[in-house]
C-alpha cells in the first residue's frame, strides 16, 4: 500500500484547481503541493464562474463535517452543471483512510502519522 502522504501530495500536485473553505485550509494544501487553490471568500456564483473558466478538473476540499458536506454538494452541483469535472479521489481517500474532518489540520495530521 502506498504511503498516505505520498498519495495526498500526488493528488494535490495534479493539474487541478483545489477549492477550500478558509485561509488555514489553503495554507495546508499549499504546503502539500497544491498550486491552484481557490478560497471560498466570494459569493458562490462568482466562484463557480471563476473556476469553470479554468478548464481544469476540480478537487473540492471542504471540511468533512456536516456543514462541509453540504457545501461540497452545492459546489459539486454548480460546477458539474457548468461542465466541470470533479476529482473526488482525495476527498474519498480522506474519508476512507483517515479520521481527519478539518482540512486545516491535514499537515498536522500527516506529521502525527507513521509516514
List the helices and strands and how they pair.
Blueprint: H1 4-12, E1 17-20, H2 23-31, E2 37-39, H3 44-52, E3 58-61, H4 66-80, H5 89-97, H6 106-112
Parallel strand pairs: 1-2, 1-3
Helix pairs in contact: 1-5
Features:
115 residues, mainly alpha, three-stranded parallel β-sheet, single chain, 6 helices
Note down, in words, how this protein is organized:
The chain has 115 residues and is mostly helical. The protein has a single domain, classed as Dna Topoisomerase Vi A Subunit, Chain: A, domain 2, CATH 3.40.1360.10. Helix content is 50%, strand content 10%. It has a three-stranded parallel β-sheet, with helices on both faces. Helix 1 packs antiparallel against helix 5. The longest helix has 15 residues. It is globular. The model has no long low-confidence stretch (mean pLDDT 91).
* Computed CA radius of gyration, to the nearest angstrom: 13 Å
The residue-averaged pLDDT reads 91
* Count of domain modules: 1
CATH uppermost class: Alpha Beta
The major β-sheet equals: 3 strands, parallel
User: What strand order characterises the main sheet?
Assistant: 2-1-3
CATH topology: Dna Topoisomerase Vi A Subunit, Chain: A, domain 2
Count of distinct strands: 3
Cα separation of the termini: 12 Å
CATH architecture level-2 label: 3-Layer(aba) Sandwich
Tell me the overall shape. globular
> What is the helical fraction, as a range of percent?
40-55%
> Strand content of the residues, in percent?
5-15%
Uncertain regions: pLDDT < 50 for 5+ in a row? none
Number of helical segments with 4 or more residues: 6
Along the chain, the helix and strand elements come as HEHEHEHHH
Q: Helices and strands: which structural class?
A: mainly alpha
